[in-house]
Amino acid sequence: MTDTKMALGFLLHALIPSFNSVALLAGFFIYLAIAGSIVPGKAIRGVTLADGTRIHYRCNGLVSLLLLVALLGISSKMGFVSPTVISDRGLELLSTTFTFSVLVTLVLYIAGSKSHSNSSSQKAHVSGNLIHDWWFGIQLNPHFMGIDLKFFFVRAGMMGWLLINLSVLAKSIQDATLSQSMILYQLFCALYILDYFVYEEYMTSTWDIIAERLGFMLVFGDLVWIPFTFSIQGWWLLWNKVDLTTAAIIANCFVFLIGYLVFRGANKQKHVFKKNPKALIWGRPPKVIGGKLLASGYWGVARHCNYLGDLLLALSFSLPCGISSPVPYFYPIYLLILLIWREKRDEARCAEKYKEIWADYCKLVPWRILPYVY
């Protein structure tokens, strides 16, 4: 009983935000705000909104991330910061980031409620239900000091995921517990995150950016859920040794490769189609339903084929942990539930928006995510 109380007391103490954790988070956000504004990057125009306007994005995430990692590496070599500072303060940073998410979304709710703008990006959509409006948000693209907050937060979440992983990697090297499993997990995640920023402009045409309003659901998802739950496998491998066979490693690499090809290929086809509806898909003119819906390539295989790729990638991040525990599989299990829920929401919205066109598309492409299964 005493040991349990001590463990619980340690956990509760570790969850209390400290000055250092607040300073780390603030420094991270300040860097992203400055780098996002001054680092050179490709200028991308977002999709056309209902009022005909388009938001402009500076896609410099890759350079900003590499610069940040380099600065942290140099600072670590010079003794200014410990490479394990994040892994040493994981719970503190989790609670600090969660608290920030709650506070910032309350501010977004208050500021959005007072907005009198009629533009599609800034117009307030108030239902009158405080919890609903706080959770789902009021404005589509709220800005702060010229920064598009939705784009800023998703960038912060993806970068934060890599920084947590790198600190966990440094911790495993420091503790002499580095294994093939850890290397495989770190490699897959790093490739996925770097690829995300190489193709960052594709994010500007995703459903989250073009349709979801910015509330607690997205802010929490970007800042807390992505970096702190997607890295569970790394934390687990710090304390658990897993020996992989050569066959298991090859199979894991195969799952990652297939997942990447489907995920990136599907998203690229959709993005290119929105930019140029006549661009070839797999070497052929695209098949388009009602002049609006792409039914070629991956989008002719399943209506949400990109979700299948995402699920395979999530699985590849967990397979290096073996099958002795369900804990490392939290991410792919959660993602499966989330994507099925999101897919149903997407289907309902598309059916309402496209009506008969969507019905024709569903007849032509009957499978939702996995052909012949779902």
UniProtKB/TrEMBL annotation:
Where is the signal peptide, in residue numbers?
none
EC number(s) on record? 1.3.1.70
Q: What would you give as a GO molecular function for this chain, any one?
A: Delta14-sterol reductase activity
Pfam families assigned to the protein according to its UniProt record, in alphabetical order: ERG4_ERG24 (PF01222)
Enumerate the transmembrane spans: 6-34, 55-74, 94-112, 152-170, 182-202, 214-238, 244-263
- Give the record's pathway: Steroid biosynthesis
Q: Which UniProt keywords apply?
A: Lipid biosynthesis, Lipid metabolism, Membrane, NADP, Oxidoreductase, Steroid biosynthesis, Steroid metabolism, Sterol biosynthesis, Sterol metabolism, Transmembrane, Transmembrane helix
Organism domain of life = Eukaryota
Q: Name one GO cellular component term.
A: endoplasmic reticulum membrane
| Gene Ontology process terms (BP) | sterol biosynthetic process
**Subcellular location as annotated:** Membrane
The UniProt entry lists membrane topology as: Multi-pass membrane protein
What the entry lists under InterPro entries is as follows:
ERG24_DHCR-like, Sterol_reductase_CS
Recorded family membership? Belongs to the ERG4/ERG24 family.
Q: What is this protein called?
A: Delta(14)-sterol reductase
